[in-house]
Design goal:
Layout: H1 3-8, E1 12-17, H2 25-38, E2 43-48, H3 50-53, H4 61-78, E3 85-89, H5 94-104, H6 109-113, H7 116-124, H8 134-147, E4 153-156, H9 161-179, E5 201-204, H10 233-241, H11 259-267, H12 271-283, H13 289-312, H14 318-346
Helix pairs in contact: 4-13, 5-8, 5-14, 8-9, 10-13, 11-13
């Protein structure tokens, strides 16, 4: 069996990121770590959703392009292998735009606007009533990003699960309307019953929501509370020292459910040591926050060291990154075009075979 045939027999997943700058530890524990694991056993497609970035950064297209390349560089640093997984740009897959238009017909407007993730973003970004029509449309577009590749699973962070539920609704509704799948059918049976789309499940990482170093909000670049994959060792130590717990003394019993101990459990590999730190901290057994932070910073730097080494190969080499993206877009278009052809056939849209190619 050839490599291509072997990959084709693996279950497929799709996930990705909107380019907003370099990736951070929240991305790693919430999704990317799982992607690195899954690329060994699954047919993986990772989308750089650059068109979605235009919903709030329309006048900063140069930054979006830069950030798109930066994310791919981070993927490669974290261990995504372009020989095992397909990394591609959303803007280079025309089938996604066509599917977005069709899927918008399947969703009531008020259903889209009830998406809790969408509502949260509007509030956090202070958009009020000034957001473009494209902003809520991106929630529909995200369903097309996913279903264009007909994945069985989508590795996501905890906050993205509501977005995926919208995708699952679209898959069910399309299958029911155009493929005669019974509305009471189990999600796992849709394809077997003739559905065009599997109903994809969420694959939430082992840490669904990593808190930022402010101890208040989820780790985020925009909130200036993130430790980035690209940070050097000194910067990591500096940021970890800023983690706020409110504890005053090493003899004061501490709360092991605070953000510092989320980092302890997430990044320190030795579970015996984790248990020891928890016990001493909870008792106030002369264990200061500063000492715990030093151990956390060391553990994070141990994790990031091989990533920094891999990343160095691509620093200043946008040409290498763009070649990887071009190859990925060619592979992605073959899959997305096949999906679109099937969709048009099921939806009784007049269509002729077409082939997309790159020069």
């Amino acid at each position: 069996m050839s490599t291509a045939e072997a990959i084709a027999h693996k279950p497929r997943i799709l996930t990705g990121d909107t380019p907003t700058g370099s990736l951070h530890l929240g991305h790693w524990v919430g999704s990317v770590k799982r992607r690195v694991e899954l690329q060994r056993t699954h047919d993986c497609y990772f989308i750089i959703a650059n068109m979605h970035a235009y919903t709030t950064r329309l006048a900063k297209s140069d930054e979006i392009r830069r950030d798109s390349i930066a994310i791919v560089r981070d993927y490669l640093a974290m261990g995504i292998d372009p020989e095992k997984a397909t990394i591609f740009l959303q803007s280079e897959i025309p089938a996604i735009a066509e599917l977005t238009f069709l899927f918008a017909m399947l969703l009531p407007f008020n259903r889209v606007m009830r998406n809790p993730t969408l509502k949260t973003e509007i509030e956090l970004k202070g958009l009020g009533e000034t957001y473009s029509f494209g902003f809520p449309l991106y929630a529909v577009g995200q369903t097309a990003d996913i279903l264009a590749f007909r994945p069985v699973g989508v590795p996501v962070g905890e906050d993205q699960v509501p977005h995926l539920e919208l995708t699952r609704e679209v898959a069910r509704r399309f299958n029911q309307i155009f493929c005669s799948v019974d509305e009471h059918a189990e999600d796992d049976d849709h394809v077997k019953l003739g559905g065009a789309f599997p109903v994809p499940r969420a694959e939430v990482g082992e840490v669904g929501r990593l808190m930022g170093i402010d101890g208040v909000n989820k780790m985020s670049k925009s909130l200036n509370n993130a430790i980035f994959i690209a940070d050097d060792a000194k910067e990591v130590e500096k940021k970890v020292k800023k983690i706020f717990t409110g504890r005053q003394s090493p003899t004061e019993p501490g709360d092991i459910n605070n953000v510092l101990f989320q980092y302890v459990r997430t990044f320190i590999k030795d579970k015996t040591r984790v248990a020891e730190l928890e016990e001493r901290y909870a008792k106030g057994d002369n264990l200061g926050d500063g000492h715990v932070k030093l151990e956390v910073a060391a553990a994070i730097n141990e994790l990031l060291a091989p990533m920094r080494e891999r990343r160095a190969k691509y620093e200043g080499r946008d040409d290498l990154v763009l070649e990887i993206l071009k190859a990925g877009c060619e592979r992605a278009n073959k899959v997305a075009e096949a999906t679109l052809a099937s969709v048009k056939q099921h939806a009784n849209l007049v269509a002729w075979p077409r082939v997309l190619s790159y020069r």
